[in-house]
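Entry type: protein chain
Record version: 2
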Amino acid sequence: MQEKIKKLANDYFQEHVEIRHHLHAHPELSYQEFETSKFVQQKLQALGIPFEVKATTGVVGLIEGKNPDSRIVALRADMDALPILEENDVPYKSTNDGVMHACGHDVHTTCLLGAAKILNNLKEEWNGTVKLIFQPGEEKNPGGASLMIKDGALNNPTPQAIFGLHVNTILEVGQLSFRGGIAMASADEIYITIKGKGGHAASPHLTIDPILISSHVIIALQQIASRNNNPFNPTVLSITAFNAGHTTNVIPDEVQLKGTFRAMDEKWRFKAHALIKEIATKVAASMGGEALVNIDVGYPCLINNESLSAQAMQLAKNFMGDKNVSETEIRMGAEDFSYYAQEMPACFFRLGTMNAAKGITAGVHTPVFNIDESAIEIGMGMMAWLGSTAKVDNIMN
């Protein structure tokens, strides 16, 4: 089975490079993936794979092998792009100015389409059912995964486990990495409005300066991580936007702050939310101002199932060789795949896409992100291998 999957992955490789080029050239923002969704539907239809549309632009396909009820595995890809102006000089450069597949979701979608073609071709040779989940909106709250779940993407049939992959720009092409347990952080958006009383900059005593208040609030918020959190518990609080004023001699009435809070412990996460609100409001009040705090609760921590991840890692070693499989580092980034992991045993793994010798080293979310496209053959083959082979019964979440 392994050799057949590898052969088909190689046979279908160039076709799927072209698919990736099409997707990369036609990126769409979160929850606007209408043409991408149609493209995926057309590809599944051409293969004779039945599918349903979920959460407006999501697509859920179903491939039945032998004994379809014996095991049910889900494979997931995300389809949205980012609001970034691409700077790559390539024939498949984004044709949608200001929108770019800078996080590799074009690669993820391509790999799952490739895995679908492989699995469909070999469906008389593996047992069970594979559910293909192409989801919208991974890059933006509330997360397309949560919307897909609400719209029944995990029903009829309900998978026993789910796998997802993500490009890794610091892992050489030809490499895969896995991690059981906590793998990625939760992510919440912070919005704070500091209100004061504006006036002439030459008469600050007649104002309640929201810029000064905001400066004190930012410094005080940093003490949440340094003095309230266990130093062995990873957490990040970053204020990333400070918007106020428009000239040199006017103190404004208010300041808009934005930021992000990341954690790897759900109890601490919500304790920190309360501290953010308390500290901001009390510091502002002590200086005569007012703080209005809104925390948009985002994705939870990503917790990979230990047993499923260990099994997937061993299957990857069988598929790629021991030296090409490693343990993924813990990351403070976030992923809405975490919502699936709350529903069932899940394994989110990394696909190496870097090629230092060729100068392909740019990180995700940058205008020059790109990959060594030989990773596509590995990604589609590995997803097909897990979908057809992983033992998913009796795994406790």
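Comment: The mean pLDDT is 97.
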